[in-house]
Write a structure and sequence with these properties.
Blueprint (H helix, E strand, L loop, with lengths): L1 H16 L4 E6 L7 H8 L5 E8 L6 E9 L2 H11 L3 E2 L2 E2 L1 E4 L34
Antiparallel strand pairs: 1-3, 1-6, 2-3, 4-5
Length: 131
């Protein structure tokens, strides 16, 4: 009986600690939009847990999109309603629920790091010839 009471109390404590944040994808950002500016804009819709602007690794320049985590589902929906299709820093935003990386379709094109080099193979000197 004691064990059941403990488990019941433990389950309640764990369930009350579960995260309810909702991550949003924000596309169409101006290259001048900062994380602080993004946070300030979305805080008009509710509590912002985090805001990040994705930057290019080589140049450090914004890639034109970012993510905002809202504290609740209700705040996230308010932010989508408030900002999707609206202008921030001179650019029209696309705001929707962020998808986990595993749910996205596989990218095609780009640089293939696979094994085949194509062409004729071989290389080297092709044998030595004395004429």
């Amino acid at each position: 009986m004691e064990r059941e009471a403990f488990l019941k109390r433990f389950k309640f404590q764990v369930s009350s600690l579960k995260k309810v944040e909702k991550k949003l994808y924000v596309g169409g950002l101006s290259y001048n939009t900062t994380e602080t500016g993004l946070r300030d804009a979305f805080s008009q819709a509710g509590e912002v847990v985090s805001a990040s602007v994705i930057t290019d690794k080589m140049s450090g320049r914004s890639r034109g999109f970012g993510f905002v985590e809202m504290a609740t589902e209700e705040d996230a929906q308010k932010a989508i309603d408030m900002w999707n299709g609206k202008e921030l820093d001179g650019r029209t935003l696309v705001v929707n629920e962020a998808k986990p990386m595993s749910d996205r379709p596989k990218r095609t094109g780009g640089f293939d790091r696979g094994g085949s080099r194509g062409g004729f193979g071989g290389g080297g000197f092709g044998g030595r010839r004395d004429y």
